């Protein structure tokens, strides 16, 4: 994603006075000063536009083809209305107010003019992203943060050599960011530390859950954990230990239940009399099991076919069925998010 520069949101108390008088909106309206630019109007770009609008920011959605921009805005309108209808809309503004904050643009120079935050959301192609950052490098001011939504490309590959490299950062969301709040913040070695802090603050303002990586590493944190799970899942199925369907149940009805509320380290801490006790109890067993892990799978061949067959029996791999299942997933994620917020507000996480 694109980073953001000097972001100057209106404080809640100031907003009550200025917005009531100038915009005629309610005293609870969290609309903020400043404009965010989204580069790329695909699924990630649209989802990001909705996230920023839910936080009260004006959003400019940029793409090179007007038809794509128009289609994206229509889809956003439908999604916001549906979210409002089901009670899952984020933020304090209603669907129409949030939609009014999002406009489209096909002129890159006009899009970024005056922006406080630019979020790049183009396909995962290094040369394409470098080309876009090169163009932006010639257009932006010294107070705009340039941030990429890349899930795998390292900051040194994307930003090295740019005039504004100190303003650059990776802010990798989890797909889809509207429903999953985590954002990985990964600086370039030359990124100004204040850029990391300002991006972190912005993500918190729009209701995301940012995490800071102190240095770049292949896959960042999320994908390194995800790929480790996928790799062992693949081996277990490939070796005939468990079926693909039952393997997924191990996560969804097992590990995933507690991982939805706490990570593996806190789980260790609570599953014994603290972390040190857990390591004393299970250190040897963990090492013995880990030594039996096989080589990295090639994710092809007979195991690929076996897993694919199990998946398409559950969800056929055509647009109609996949989109329906994704819609169900997103609704589940939103409901889970609400449950987690309720639990946190009740103070259970501090017991």
Secondary-structure topology with pairs:
Blueprint: H1 12-22, E1 35-39, H2 43-54, E2 58-62, H3 66-85, H4 95-100, E3 102-105, H5 108-112, E4 117-120, H6 126-137, E5 145-148, H7 155-159, E6 168-173, E7 182-187, H8 193-205, E8 209-212, H9 222-238, H10 244-259, H11 264-270, H12 275-290, H13 301-314, H14 319-345
Structure notes:
The chain has 351 residues and is of the alpha/beta class. The protein is built from 14 helices and eight strands. It has an eight-stranded mixed β-sheet with strand order 3-2-1-4-5-6-7-8, sandwiched between helices. Helix 2 (43-54) links the parallel strand 1 and strand 2 (58-62). The longest helix has 27 residues, at 319-345. The two termini are 36 Å apart.
Structural class: alpha/beta
The overall strand count is 8
Radius of gyration from the CA trace? 22 Å
What kind of sheet is the major sheet? 8 strands, mixed
**Mean pLDDT level:** 90
Task: Please give the share of residues in helix.
Answer: 40-55%
Number of helices: 14
Query: In sequence order, what are the helices and strands, one letter per element?
Result: HEHEHHEHEHEHEEHEHHHHHH
Q: Give start-end ranges of low-pLDDT stretches.
A: 1-29
Q: Tell me the strand order in the biggest sheet.
A: 3-2-1-4-5-6-7-8
Taken from the alpha-carbon principal axes, the silhouette is globular
Strand content: 5-15%
Termini separation comes to: 36 Å
Oligomer: single chain
């Amino acid at each position: 994603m694109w980073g953001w520069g000097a972001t100057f949101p209106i404080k809640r108390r100031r907003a009550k006075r200025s917005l009531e008088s100038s915009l005629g909106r309610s005293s609870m309206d969290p609309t903020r000063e400043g404009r965010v630019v989204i580069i790329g109007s695909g699924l990630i770009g649209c989802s990001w536009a909705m996230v920023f609008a839910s936080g009260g920011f004006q959003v400019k959605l940029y793409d090179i083809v007007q038809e794509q921009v128009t289609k994206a805005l229509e889809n956003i309108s439908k999604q916001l209305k549906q979210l409002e209808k089901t009670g899952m809309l984020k933020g304090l503004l209603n669907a129409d107010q949030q939609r009014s904050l999002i406009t489209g643009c096909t002129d890159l120079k006009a899009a970024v003019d005056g922006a406080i935050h630019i979020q790049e959301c183009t396909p995962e192609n290094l040369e394409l992203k470098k080309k876009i950052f090169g163009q932006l490098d010639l257009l932006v001011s010294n107070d705009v943060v340039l941030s990429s939504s890349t899930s795998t490309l390292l900051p040194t590959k994307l930003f090295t050599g740019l005039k504004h490299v100190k303003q650059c950062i990776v802010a990798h969301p989890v797909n889809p960011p509207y429903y999953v709040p985590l954002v990985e913040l990964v600086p370039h070695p030359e990124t100004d530390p204040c850029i990391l802090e300002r991006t972190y603050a912005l993500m918190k303002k729009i209701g995301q859950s940012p995490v800071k990586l102190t240095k770049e590493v292949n896959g960042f944190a999320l994908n390194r954990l995800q790929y480790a799970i996928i790799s062992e899942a693949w081996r277990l199925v490939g070796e005939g230990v468990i079926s693909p369907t039952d393997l997924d149940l191990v996560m969804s009805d097992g590990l995933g239940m507690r991982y939805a509320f706490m990570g593996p380290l806190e789980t260790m801490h609570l599953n014994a009399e603290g972390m040190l006790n857990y390591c004393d109890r299970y250190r040897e067993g963990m090492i013995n099991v880990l030594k039996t892990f096989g080589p990295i799978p090639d994710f092809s061949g007979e195991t690929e076919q076996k897993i694919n067959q199990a998946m398409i029996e559950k969800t056929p791999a055509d647009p109609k069925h996949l989109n329906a299942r994704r819609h169900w997933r997103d609704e589940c994620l939103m409901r889970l998010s609400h449950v987690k917020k309720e639990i946190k507000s009740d103070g259970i996480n501090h017991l």
